[in-house]
Amino acid sequence: MIIDGKRSLAHVERISWVKPIEGADNIELIGVLGWNCIAKIGEFEKGDLCVYIEIDSKVPEKEWSEFLRRKHFKIKTMKLSKFNVISQGIALPLNLFDVEIPQEEGVDVTELLEIKYSNPSDAKRKSEGLNKYEVMAQNHKELFEKSWVKWLMKREWGKKLMFFIFGNENDKSKRFPTKFPYISKTDQERCENMPDILNDKTPYIRTQKCDGSSATYILEKVNPHPFKKEFEFYVCSRNLRIYKEEDPLIEVDNPYWEMAEKYDIENKLKDYLEKHKDCDHICWQGEICGPKIQGNPHNLTENHLFCFHMIDSNKKFDIREAKKIWDAYEMESVPIDLEEYILPDDFEEFKQTADGYYSPEVCEGHSKCSMEGWVYYKTTEPSFSFKNISRKYLLKRGE
After folding, report:
1. What CATH number labels 189-396?
2. Potential cystine with 59: which of 65, 234, 344, 353 (Cβ 3.0-4.6 Å)?
3. Considering the entire predicted model, what is its pTM?
């Protein structure tokens, strides 16, 4: 779930329903938001508060989590073939933990319970990136290699003292830029965390969800004078601005700049701004997919950028309009499957529609590449979108 602009791996929710599992003596099926979970019989009643821990999570080794030791404390999508049941995430009673849990629906307790991403690469890819102390250390590398500074930084009062002296807000920051209207990180909410969305019968645009690493490219006019035009080019991962010089925080091959150069993105964005004098900046966001990214589900031989968002200083574009512009600039983009899709009434039926295969156009012509799922964009509000991830896909990938 996205809470306060970032992914929450654990949050307080209510039990939506409780159902028996045919043939099971000790377990039953419960609903949390749109998720199906396994619980002990009698552990919950409808309306009870619980801590829901999402898939992709790894819990700390505590007394309350000991039952997860044989699963290496990781939470994944699980299929109980004997009962033909799929469970995603776990729900636990509030009184189970060694800390006090707020009794308030929707509260993020990820940090309180010390829960992390189960996959180290996901932790790097999806985390908030550098905190303010790490940014400070990067900006004063030589100083922060000194032993006395390292001694200080191991103490909370020492960190605060160093930040007071060296934590200059004007230092070169590697955080994702937040000054541009309409431009944000590319996290999208899962449909399971918003099951009431099925009540919205507004037509949606349905696009295939490519599986890779998200990238953001922004070009800003910093001096619009006709005789001395100047621009600033931003290349960003999910959470960080990536500078062209060698950066130890990213992979050596740097796919973000590789895509910028492969598609000549800076010059294409510059051409757009030249043609649209009323715009101060332009942004393309997309998914980088390739042989060394996310296990290469697209079966690609080289890296590709599949665009899915276009934003300028005036608006966020309807993806159908954006695709026409990307096509004109010879950019690749995510396949648009349906342009007037009406969400079904039944949630289980909706989940089953997520199973399928990628279009060959995002798989270098290959067919039968299992698809991660769909992303839905509201036709009347291009900035509103959410995703439906295939359970079969997650099971196949062990997630």
Report:
1. 3.30.470.30
2. 65
3. 0.80
